[in-house]
Write a structure and sequence with these properties.
Beta-lactamase; Rossmann fold; alpha+beta; 19 helices; 3 domains; five-stranded antiparallel beta sheet; 576 residues
């Protein structure tokens, strides 16, 4: 979504005219938020609401993000609803078992088997210490079975009007983790800034649960031990009183904080989500945490007329790994990624007149790698699949919706899947550094060197290679095939509604080589595919697999990727 549209949507979220500030003031805040996002890195979403006037402002406020431990806030509210309904007893004594005390953050894992605490104490530790052992103890008392517990929390938040908030699993419970796209992408939970603000507003108005339980929840939140994000730069010295009830979350490249802020200057509900944050340091100087703190202060300044905040600089780190039932995926940053590129330093104006600024559309140099459990380096090197996503998309969305990790595991594919970031959510086919001579070679060499340093592989040799592209990713794929520097390794091309241009490049590759070309297309590009097929004959015809799809464009990869992988030869499989 381009910046102009984001600004327009932010202005639409303002309160009715009586409490609405000048549009220029809201735009100024969004511009400041964009500056902070570009400065500190990562992908940001936030929403803030003045609970006295109703004024609301947000940025990517309806976008789904991983929650990390912030999902414990809906669990907390569900617990108190059950307590209000007399379906659970907060004073119940819990006896710790060995199964309860699996490793995780918190203090309960360090107690002895047989020690006892009350259920309410576990609830408090779940929030104030973000204790994962305590969280599982609480979850396990909500309903008889694991699916029922998750459903209970999800039904509660849905009844409260939270449209995109879901708990997806227990904490540190990989044996129950699902293979769904949501569970792989978001981990333990998913939500949006606007959902979290809605929950906080219901807590403020004492409609989330009973008034007495709302007071109890706020009391627990105010005892929060983790204050390094939203509360960090709020100017307590300027207030006669300032009370903050918040819940933080942090996992891998995700940093989250949601807070109810009560003061003599303003009563504010605020939610800040940071994802794809390349700083992996596990301390309070993490760039994502600093970004959240700065955005919180910017929002405070906007509503109160206060000014200023302290800025700090911290270094970046390397690969961030995330586990899923059939393997793991990681994200890192690289100078060999398609972007930034000199041709997009000033952004890009599409044919429809839409302007896509440099940030956030062309400054994301992230690369996602998926390593299924079926991967094993061969004596000849590593098999690799590189996929270039299409227009108005990004590599993390592809990871979620394409269901590519699941397909790799189902077909026992012995390869690493690489998802470089192209133009971020832009209607742009430019392939960045992939259009430069040898661009693909530099990308793969960098990826293999990174995997070697991460001890995924022992050598940095490339064996076999598949190039895959959807939609406007065709140009990066064509450039990779024509001048990427790894032409001799390419055994297959996978194209998903991607014959927008450069058909001669794909035709020459097919006719002059011995590889397979698979393509699935919708009616949108039906004529282009028919014309292409008519120009192919002889042996090349046998190596061409075109499918006139009966599914929507967004379903092409989930519908056909697995069957195409199934057709690969034994050199791509690991049947162990």
């Amino acid at each position: 979504m381009n910046r102009i549209l984001l600004l327009f949507l932010a202005l639409l979220t303002a309160a009715p005219a009586a409490g609405r500030p000048a549009a220029g003031k809201q735009e100024k805040l969004i511009q400041e938020v964009l500056r902070l996002e570009a400065k500190y890195g990562g992908h940001l979403g936030f929403m803030a609401k003045n609970l006295k006037t109703g004024e609301t402002i947000g940025y990517n406020a309806a976008e789904r993000f991983p929650t990390a431990s912030v999902i414990k806030l809906p669990v907390l509210a569900t617990f108190f609803q059950l307590a209000d309904d007399k379906k659970i007893d907060p004073s119940e004594l819990l006896t710790l078992t060995r199964a309860d005390m699996k490793p995780g953050f918190g203090i309960l894992q360090h107690l002895a088997e047989g020690d006892r605490i009350t259920l309410l104490d576990a609830v408090k530790l779940m929030i104030t210490q973000s204790d994962n052992t305590a969280t599982n103890l609480v979850l396990d008392r909500l309903a008889p079975t694991h699916p029922e517990r998750l459903a209970l929390v999800n039904e509660f938040v849905a009844q409260k009007g939270l449209k995109n908030t879901r708990i997806l699993n227990r904490l540190f419970s990989f044996d129950t983790k699902q293979r769904t796209p949501e569970a792989i992408r978001y981990g333990v939970g998913v939500s949006t800034p606007e959902d979290m603000v809605a929950l906080l507003e219901a807590l403020y108005s004492k409609t989330l649960v009973s008034p007495s339980s709302c007071d109890a929840i706020m009391g627990i939140l105010k005892n929060q031990s983790y204050r390094e994000m939203i509360p960090r730069y709020l100017p307590e010295e300027e207030c006669q009183y300032l009370e903050i009830g918040n819940k933080t979350g942090s996992v891998n490249e995700t940093k989250v904080d949601v807070a109810l802020i009560l003061s003599d200057k303003i009563d504010l509900a605020l939610a800040v989500f940071v994802d794809k944050q390349p700083d992996h340091r596990g301390d309070i100087e993490n760039r994502g945490i600093l970004l959240g703190a700065m955005v919180a202060r910017a929002a405070w300044n906007h509503f109160t007329g206060s000014t200023g905040y302290q800025e700090r600089k911290v270094p970046l780190h390397n690969v961030d790994w995330n586990s899923y039932p059939d393997g793991r995926w990681g994200i890192y940053r690289s100078d060999a990624a398609p972007f930034p590129h000199r041709q997009r330093k000033k952004g890009f104006k599409a044919s429809d007149g839409t302007l896509y600024p440099y940030h956030p559309h062309y400054d994301d140099n992230s690369i996602v790698v998926v390593v299924p459990n079926t991967f094993q380096e061969t004596g000849d090197g590593t098999n690799v699949i590189v996929h270039f996503h299409g227009e108005m998309d990004d590599n993390m969305a592809t990871l979620e919706t394409g269901q590519m990790p699941q397909a790799l595991s189902e077909q026992k594919i012995n390869a690493i899947l690489v998802l470089p970031q192209g133009p971020y959510r832009a209607r742009d086919s430019f392939g960045g550094k992939m259009t430069d001579e040898g661009g693909l070679k530099r990308l793969i060499e960098d990826m293999l060197a990174t995997m070697k340093s991460e001890k995924i592989i022992k050598t940095d040799r490339l064996n076999k290679l598949i190039i895959s592209a959807q939609g406007f990713g065709y140009y990066a794929a064509a450039s990779a095939v024509k001048r990427g520097g790894e032409e001799s390794h390419i055994t297959s091309l996978f194209l998903w509604d991607a014959l927008y241009g450069n058909p001669e490049v794909f035709r020459n590759w097919l006719v002059k080589g011995n590889g397979m070309l698979h393509a699935a297309y919708t009616s949108n590009l039906g004529k282009e595919h028919v014309r292409f097929e008519q120009t192919i004959s002889g042996d090349a015809k046998k190596r061409l697999r075109f499918v006139a799809a009966t599914v929507d464009r967004g379903k092409l990869i989930p519908s056909y990727f697995q069957s195409w992988l199934k057709d690969l030869g034994p050199e791509w499989k690991n049947e162990r």
